Amino acid sequence: MSAVQIGRDGISITATSDTRLPVNEYHLKEMNDSQKQYIRSSIPILESSGVNITQAFYQRMLENYPEVRPYFNKAHQISLSQPRILAFALLNYARNIDDLTPLSEFIDQIIVKHIGLQIKAEHYPIVGQCLLATMREMLGEDVATPEFLEAWTIAYGNLAKILIDAEKNIYQSQPWNGFAEFEVVDLIDESFDVKSVYMVPRDKTFKIASAYPGQYISISWKIPGLPHETIREYSLSKYPDTKKNQYRISVRRVHEGIVSNYVHEHLKVGDIVGVSPPAGKRKPPVLCFAGGIGITPIVPIVENALLDGRTVVFCYSNRNYSSRPFKNWLLQLKDQYKERFKLKEFFSKEAYLRKEEIIDELMTRVLLREDIMKLNSAECDIYMLGPNSYMRFVKEELVKLGVEPKRIATEFFGPYSP
């Protein structure tokens, strides 16, 4: 999915005279200087009281509009994490009201989040109504004048229009919309506080969608005692099994977590849940090179990348098979992550240890393999650590393959020699 590009010239403006609270049909309207000044005047207010405003906004919306309650995690309201995020968004929207280009990446993140939760166009008027009503109530008539509210009505409508249009385009490309019924077919305890849930479509003719590493699905749970369904997002903990037509998520029990405790204590094989299509950006692969004990700082890099859902190709050079450290760890990763962890190992005979050309020859063969070449794209993250001569060689080979030197993250062991 490409990023949303917006700015002074990045969106087309359609004039409209509608300055009421937002309605279902949004139009982009060019703001005049006076209206932009009202938005700018909100900056000090949002800096000092933004979280108070957004906290009150969520309380108003969740109390009065039960249809949006499934999309919000009560714990995030209690911790104020969600009000803080919205306050941050409003503040930066006000700061960049003249040119929204710096917010493109942040807006793209909002779109990804909305797609995962299956937020639809009909939800935006509810948000707009509650946000403006909260501003009017909390800021009072002296600040929240009709002109002030008119400016924020237009500003909100413009942002809503951008988000709705971008999300509509993505929804049209998805294999299904909303939440399809899936049946739980297996439950596996991975540890004392992690349980894996295997699911297949209830309709046997329904085919699951493939997914990029790192993508997630949202699940709509019907939990006894709750008056509404509850939606949560889960990373796919296994590449989708298209032969079994099966997804897997792994849920960690959270203290006082309503959903996680339900999964661990009450969910059973045969239960039905709602599942959204895979969402989230494709995360770039990681290419690691290590020589000998240079593997030590690479270990957390590899582990974090795999936990983040990324594909890792690890090229590891040693004197011989018996001298390599972390043998069991490497085998565990291969068994756990399968196609997402590709290990390429190289060994030089003891007699040829100091003859760099032996290692060079072995490494060159692998670097030219098709699966490595595919990873040498502009988005791939590359890490390298080992003896100086080893790293000089690897870097030279990567540069020959078209990799920009500045993209190779590296450190040196021992004294540096250029």
Automatic annotation (TrEMBL):
This is nitric oxide dioxygenase. It catalyses: 2 nitric oxide + NADH + 2 O2 = 2 nitrate + NAD(+) + H(+); 2 nitric oxide + NADPH + 2 O2 = 2 nitrate + NADP(+) + H(+). The keyword Disulfide bond does not apply. Residues 30-168 form the Globin domain. It comes from the Eukaryota. Its EC number is 1.14.12.17. It is an enzyme of class 1 (oxidoreductase). Keywords: Detoxification, Dioxygenase, FAD, Flavoprotein, Heme, Iron, Metal-binding, NAD, NADP, Oxidoreductase. Its cofactor is FAD; heme b. GO terms for biological process: cellular detoxification of nitrogen compound; cellular response to nitrosative stress; nitric oxide catabolic process. In the C-terminal section; belongs to the flavoprotein pyridine nucleotide cytochrome reductase family. The keyword NAD applies. It holds the Pfam family FAD_binding_6. GO terms for molecular function: FAD binding; heme binding; metal ion binding; nitric oxide dioxygenase NAD(P)H activity; oxygen binding. Residues 177-285 form the FAD-binding FR-type domain.
